[in-house]
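User: I'm writing a short report section on ligand binding and want a predicted complex to refer to. Could you take this sequence and pyridoxal-5'-phosphate and write out the structure as tokens? A short remark afterwards would be nice.
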Amino acid sequence: MKMLYLDHAASTPLAPEVLEAMMPFLTEHYGNPTSLHQAGRASRRAIDTARAEVAELIGAEPFQIVFTGGGTAANNLAIKGVAESRKSHGRHIITSTIEHPAILNACRWLETQGFEVSYIDVDQYAQLDPEDIKNVLRDDTILVSLMLGNNEVGTLQPLADIGQILKDHPAYFHTDAVQAIGHLPIDVDELGVDLLSLTGHKFYGPKGVGALFVREGIELDPILHGGGQERNLRSGTENIAGIVGLGAAAKLGRETMSETQSRITTLRDRLISETLSQIEGSHLLGHPTERLPGSVSLAFEDLMGESLLLKLDMEGICVSTGSACSSGHMDPSHVLVAMGLSNELGNGSVRITLGRSTTDQDIDRVLDILPDAVDQVRKMAF
Ligand SMILES: Cc1ncc(COP(=O)(O)O)c(C=O)c1O
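Assistant: Sure. The structure tokens for the complex follow:
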């Protein structure tokens, strides 16, 4: 049975073009980019090229890109780096209740260090109201960090509107754009952000490498101290193969985005509408239209998402759930709780995320299997 991978929000496969670009830097080009000799210079050039590619993908300048060890590292650098550099101006931070743990746990840690964090609530679609940000902004607010596209339910946030509100406020504006980069056209100026996190493995690049966009003039302290690489913001010998892969993924993303985006959106909408019409007691989670192109998040009444995941896995289809086992019982994720979903429906949630290789036939196969799978799992529950 051929595996059908529909968990692209968790990770994407490495694109063949990306692997090809990386290979020489895993084999013959091993010079340290800080070395002045030709081997070192070859590595430095490759990093420069990748930096330009990543910058172009998000409408930035190459010098504004800092390579990191992935999305978590970029988020931690943004949150802790700003907190440290701006603490003499204030100790108040604004974020939302639906952020990735790489933001939430960094903020929680800062609370133990004397910072105050406001967690803004979302509506039933997991969307923020820009007015709520305006209402909690204070003179001592130093940072606002809000994600662009939610990893669990796919909802996109009105960041450009929030950027307008923050335009005349000294607080820095950071976004975790990990799920959107490479899939949607993103321009840091249009969003009005000062800092933006991205990671390679969510758009067909390698794992363990990402970047933080840092606008000119933004004061940021490093969280790693060492040899001063990446403008002293991320010390440590560069992961050259990874960075080259990130650059190649950025180039590929830019070149294929518009075609992929519209094709995937059409497949997504077909999967949503046919599931909702074919399966009684099924609900779409997240915003009906303002959502990531490949993201389908569903909740089914009278079943456990985990059981459905395992059933689909037996049929060769890889998806994920929106609940996790903690202290022996299932709990809906913090995102589903923030949306006001009942425990029962939250526990019946399943996330299906499409990718570049997903075809019409793949959607047919899901639609062929899903109704029976739901039926069988429901029967098992009683
Ligand atoms: C929204 C979001 N932010 C951050 C991360 C973390 O990225 P990484 O796995 O590269 O550390 C993820 C990955 O799951 C994510 O979905």
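A remark for your report: The chain has two domains: 4-10+257-372, 16-253. The chain is about 40% helix and 15% strand.
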